[in-house]
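[09:14] KT: can someone run the structure on this one? pasting the chain below
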Amino acid sequence: MRRVGIIGLGDMGMGMARNIIKGGYPLVGYDLREARLLELEQAGGTRAISCREVGESSDAVFVMVLNGDQVKEAIFGDDGLAEGLKPGATIIVSATIHPSEVKELVAPAAEKGLHLIDTPVSGGKSGAKDGALTLMAAAKPEVLEENREVLDTVSKVVFHVGEEIGQGQTVKAALQALIGTTFAAVFESLVLGASAGVKGETMFEVFGSSGVSSPLFKGCAKLIMERKFKDTGSHIGTMYKDLGITMNMAKENGAAMFATAAAYELFRSGISLFPDEDNWSIVKLLEQIAGTEVTW
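[09:31] RB: done, structure tokens below
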């Protein structure tokens, strides 16, 4: 059985860790926060004192941190993962970073005889908790197959989107354009209806029965109407960061992103007002402008 490691035990990483353990794999994890390491131990995992120690105890390691700089530091820092892994081990980059940032890992990993899987995830905190994430995996077919059973413990489906490292992050950046603009449309449509006197319950039922109904809409609308704007597992800073990656990729590829650009600016305004809250808090900005509140 492959020995598994994980670096980054936030809401996503901890949910993944629990499902890896549930899948029967011995798991070693590392995080900067003592409370998260204690939580890992309580779930049946083993704490490490550094990224290097995770590598020394693992055949495959998920890297689930916030951004590209953290990914590079975790893997190739002074006490990084690459210093502990043996040749033939696999680094699974499940964080969402810019495609160029994950491509920069290829050469130094190859020099140490390490394999890479570029596989950002979608599904949020609930998906991580339930082992139902969607994985967009770019890797050599043989590397993906060697690690597929481990990947299956955290996912409902693993899409092999290509062999070239960076293609996973590219697919994720395009997906975030769709998700970000959908969020913006949900916020605006609910505020428009509320400002005109439509009950929240009516909008939820009608929109939820229409052709645009989705778990995303229902989950988002429910949280807004219940006025739950913190600790729901979808921090505004994460989506803002992801949309920034999307817009940078669009610039590099000459793609016009009118709707995504508007959503990005909306999230920029939202994070300046509600930096410690979740995505849905943006609706409060629109409510202030319209002089209304979206409730049941």
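[09:33] KT: thanks! The chain has a mean pLDDT of 97.
[09:34] RB: yep, looked fine to me
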